[in-house]
């Protein structure tokens, strides 16, 4: 059975189901091109194609349209199935997708790898909405006989994303014991792992590497373990049931050539030449003590270095769906740097997922340093920076933490070098974040930039958040230093944010208060000095309760429409503010005193070429105002 989408479709409601077979023409050309793209080693030429399409079919008796297609392709010797998915209705109560042989010995259920609503976007060949399978693969009927190299087999299936492995390739084999580990393996080159340099490691039978000591735990707990860990697939693997775990390190030969080629493909800017490779492979290992079902799982980890740059490749073959727990990724001993692959891919989908556009492969650069600094010139620089941005604080940095992402690349597009950095600064009482941006390559996926607390009560989204073009971060700033954003993050009483960036405000500071009326405005305010606004000279203004200033007349409109309004408008935050619910709107103008000193200092900081001295300041503040009729100060 071949089931692109088996469910309760009803073409009496809507839709058409149609089919054709062809032995010449454009369909064969397209099929030939497709199969050679997905199976480039075959030199395939299609001689027959059968196409069935379910176009805009309805589910049951509902007005729901869904479109999908199955394509059978053959050259007389080799056969393939393509399943293509268009729009999928979200209102479907039961369905299956995949294929199965009559005796259920060979099958594939796509629902183990993708939800049905996600079929439009998922794939096993990196073509959105397409799944492809080769079906001219023979098998013998009957119960399983003993298999694999443990049982004397000489033929070994090697997934094409794996490096060669096993005793025939010079590997050392781990003892077939439950929860075991290799003896210490002394490395021929130093391996850099996020600031730590390692000269030895252990291959632990349960699917992970450690550096300082062997770890036998079958219960995956990467975080807070206290170890540097690289875990392609940490679970309860048991080679006393089936499978082999083997490893080798090399400093010459074909493995280095392959590693060099791979890293240059994923990081083309590096001009990389591998000088050392370590390969550990878990081949057809069994999960725990299960006997009633086959749980053979294969995966591999490859460490690569040229003496300066270090990389980890994690390769995935067949992953059993009968696994109760698993972790995949890496973590530093202090848990400061980590990556959890299962945040991006289900474990059953590891065979098909990737961060480098190679099915079943995840790649990470690990020679990225982070540092904690408690003395020296870095603290002096941090002190100088913070005093520049917050001159009123009398600050001296005692601790700095720096993380730099240097020449990184976006998945899935390669060759797009990007560099950025975050710096945490503290004196034990006050804390700051600096975000520094160097070259940022254009990308197609949206990003988030800023910070957030666990309960989202304090957060900041930079303007580039949720957008795909982030290159402007290299040139923008909130402290007038190109490519730098700085935030104070320590808690402080009486609303620290207002104390820092607001001028003094409120009746206690001599402000006049606007009437607490919905959609109101101040009376006319005659200015003590003329204010120039892009060619217009103004001697009066109005403070409108809904969050904006006008000059010629008050405006009560609660629906912001700055453009084509016919007014000169300054709108710090025009919306439907309602001080009858909460809040105070107040204003003042000053021609002497501390306000002028602060204004002079601020303008000279942001426009240092002007040699500016303020003689007049007007301040309007909307303090804790509510929106509409909501209790939202």
Count of helical stretches: 5
Strand content: 25-35%
Largest sheet: 7 strands, antiparallel
Uncertain regions spanning at least 5 consecutive residues: 139-157, 408-416, 492-499
Instruction: State the total count of DSSP E strands.
Output: 38
Q: What does this protein structure show overall?
A:
The protein has 633 residues and is mainly beta. The protein folds into four domains: 2-134, no CATH class; 153-365, no CATH class; 370-497, no CATH class; 502-627, no CATH class. It is built from five helices and 38 strands. The strands form nine sheets. Strands 10, 15, 16, 17, 18, 19 and 22 form a seven-stranded antiparallel beta sheet that branches. Strands 2, 3, 4, 5, 6 and 9 form a six-stranded antiparallel beta sheet that branches. It is globular and about 90 Å long. 29% of the residues are buried.
Structural descriptors:
633 residues, mainly beta, 4 domains, six-stranded antiparallel β-sheet, 38 strands, globular
């Amino acid at each position: 059975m071949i089931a692109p989408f088996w469910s309760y479709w009803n073409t009496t409601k809507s839709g058409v189901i149609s089919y054709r077979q062809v032995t010449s023409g454009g369909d064969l050309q397209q099929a030939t091109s497709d199969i050679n793209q997905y199976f480039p080693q075959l030199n395939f030429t299609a001689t027959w194609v059968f196409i069935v399409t379910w176009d805009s079919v309805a589910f049951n008796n509902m007005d729901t349209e869904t479109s999908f297609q199955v394509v059978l392709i053959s050259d007389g010797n080799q056969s393939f199935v393509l399943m293509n998915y268009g729009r999928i209705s979200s209102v479907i109560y039961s369905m299956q997708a995949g294929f199965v042989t009559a005796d259920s010995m060979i099958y594939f259920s796509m629902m183990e790898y993708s939800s049905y609503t996600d079929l439009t976007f998922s794939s096993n060949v990196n073509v959105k909405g397409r799944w492809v399978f080769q079906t001219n693969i023979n098998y013998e009927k009957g119960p399983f006989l003993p298999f694999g190299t443990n049982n004397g087999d000489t033929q070994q299936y090697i997934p094409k994303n794996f490096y060669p492995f096993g005793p025939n390739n010079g590997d050392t084999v781990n003892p077939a014991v439950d929860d075991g580990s290799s003896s210490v393996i002394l490395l021929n080159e130093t391996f850099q792992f996020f600031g730590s340099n390692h000269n030895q490691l252990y291959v632990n039978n349960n699917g992970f590497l450690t550096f300082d000591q062997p770890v036998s735990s079958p219960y995956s707990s990467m975080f807070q373990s206290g170890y540097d860990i690289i875990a392609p697939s940490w679970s309860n693997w048991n080679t006393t049931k089936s499978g082999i775990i083997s490893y080798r390190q090399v400093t010459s030969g074909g493995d280095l050539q392959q590693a060099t080629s791979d890293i240059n493909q994923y990081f083309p800017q590096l001009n990389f030449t591998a000088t050392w490779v370590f390969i550990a492979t878990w081949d057809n290992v069994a999960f725990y003590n299960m006997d009633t079902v086959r749980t053979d799982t294969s995966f591999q980890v490859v460490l690569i270095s040229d003496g300066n740059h270090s990389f980890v490749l994690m390769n995935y073959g067949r992953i059993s769906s009968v696994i109760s727990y698993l972790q995949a990724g890496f973590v530093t001993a202090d848990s400061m740097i980590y990556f959890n692959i299962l945040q991006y891919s289900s474990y059953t989908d590891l065979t098909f997922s990737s961060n480098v556009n190679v099915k079943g492969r995840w790649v990470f650069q690990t020679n990225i340093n982070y540092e904690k600094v408690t003395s020296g010139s870095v603290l002096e620089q941090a002190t100088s920076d913070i005093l520049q941005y917050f001159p009123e604080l009398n600050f001296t940095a005692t601790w700095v933490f720096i993380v730099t992402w240097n020449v990184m690349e976006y998945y899935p597009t390669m060759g797009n070098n990007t560099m950025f950095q975050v710096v945490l600064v503290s004196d034990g009482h006050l804390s700051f974040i600096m975000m520094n941006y160097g070259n940022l390559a254009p990308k197609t996926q949206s990003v988030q930039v800023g910070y957030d607390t666990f309960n989202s009560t304090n957060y900041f989204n930079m303007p580039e958040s949720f957008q795909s073009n982030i290159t402007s971060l290299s040139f923008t700033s909130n402290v007038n230093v190109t490519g730098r954003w700085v935030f104070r993050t320590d808690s402080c009483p009486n609303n620290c944010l207002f104390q820092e960036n607001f001028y003094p405000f409120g009746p206690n500071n001599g402000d006049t208060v606007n009437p607490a009326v919905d959609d109101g405005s101040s009376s006319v305010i005659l200015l003590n000095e003329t204010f120039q606004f892009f060619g217009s000279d103004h001697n009066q203004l109005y403070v409108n309760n809904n969050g904006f200033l006008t000059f010629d007349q008050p405006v009560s409109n609660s629906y912001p429409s700055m453009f084509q309004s016919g007014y000169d408008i300054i709108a710090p935050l025009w919306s439907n503010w309602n001080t009858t619910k909460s809040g105070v709107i107040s204003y003042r103008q000053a021609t002497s005193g501390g306000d002028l000193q602060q204004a002079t200092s601020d303008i000279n900081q942001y426009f240092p070429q002007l040699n500016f001295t303020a003689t007049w300041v007007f301040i309007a503040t909307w303090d804790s105002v509510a929106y509409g009729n909501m209790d939202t100060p």
